[in-house]
Amino acid sequence: MPLKLLSVLEMPERVADRFRARTSLVQGRLEDAADVQPDAILCSIGPRRFDREVIRNLPASVKAIATYSVGYDHIDLQAAADRGIAVFNTPGVLSDAVADAALLLILGAARRATESIALLREGRWTGWSPAQLVGEGLSGKTLGIFGMGNIGRKVASRARAFGMRLAYHGRSEAVGEDALFYPDPRALIADCDIAVLAWPSTPETRYFIAADTLCLAKPSLILVNIGRGDLVKDEDLIAALRDGKILAAGLDVFDNEPQIHPGYLDLPNAFLLPHIGSSTWEARLAMADVLLDALETHACGGQPHNRIA
Ligand code: NAP
Questions:
Q1: 146 and 23, same structural domain?
Q2: Among 46, 71, 235, 304, who pairs with 294 as Cys (CB 3.0-4.6 Å)?
Q3: What per-residue confidence (pLDDT) applies to 21?
Q4: Does the global pTM surpass 0.90?
Q5: CA separation (Å) from 42 to 56, 173, 177, 178, 248?
Q6: Angle, alpha carbons 256-257-262 (nearest 5°)
Q7: Residue 51 maps to which CATH number?
Q8: Which of 73, 94, 104, 199 to mutate to test ligand 1, by most ligand atoms within 8 A of the CB atom?
Q9: Ligand 1 and 283: CB distance under 6 A
């Protein structure tokens, strides 16, 4: 008997077909769980949080929650563990896609993509000039990576090809990385030319970028956030971008998304993407496969590598 999987997220048909090939997939709402009596719930990040109350109200048939994401800050893992519900995520398989997007954000911010696109689309371009939209080169610049995990390491390998110098902060020194380790993230924000936030949202990382850290940064800093929106205090970053305290930002994730702070929308030095970091077909299909493998292994009594509760 295939696993009965209740999916509470919208998926492209190609991805849904992947799940249908190996499960009995029901598309629905969490409120339908009592009627469906699924073995597992497929969810992702979004406004719907799997807090203790939501988890408590799941029917007894539910043995697993599979989140179609690496981040799991939307799930109360302890509440799931307390009910004996296993939780799985999708580490590793989307890191290339997200690292590609990080480079897009770095380049978009450094080369003034927001202003360039507006100039063309608004019909204001009067022709090439050496003074027009002069941006920043990457070669020789110091890239500070906050979180040298799966995504951070992929960002590093791309940055090497651009001739950038590497520095990073993590909770521990990553062995074998040709990058300078900073035990103090505040020292790294002060020293780097480009900062990439590739951290998860945790009580320690939340709102790390705020007025007190931005005032340490060089005025030429380019800040990129590919991790989670709540790593950044929006009002403080918007003020720093508006007042020239830092040069530019490239953001894929936002606090309280999709209701992003309106202050970003008028800033010519903010290059913004709507959380598309992992949006490639390769990543989307691989994310399905890694969750399907985990659900099947777990159902047979095995220990999937991507079990987080
Ligand atoms: P990962 O492999 O677990 O890497 C996370 C890194 O952050 C690790 O190096 C970890 O250090 C470090 N870290 C964690 N907590 C920390 C703390 N309190 N202080 C300092 N460093 C800390 O995860 P990943 O796959 O690279 O993903 C990272 C995050 O990216 C996810 O959690 C998610 O929020 C975000 N993400 C975004 C997108 C997108 O579409 N934009 C897509 C996927 C993921 P240790 O080595 O010490 O554990």
A1: no
A2: 304
A3: 97
A4: yes
A5: 16, 35, 35, 38, 37
A6: 85
A7: 3.40.50.720
A8: 199
A9: no
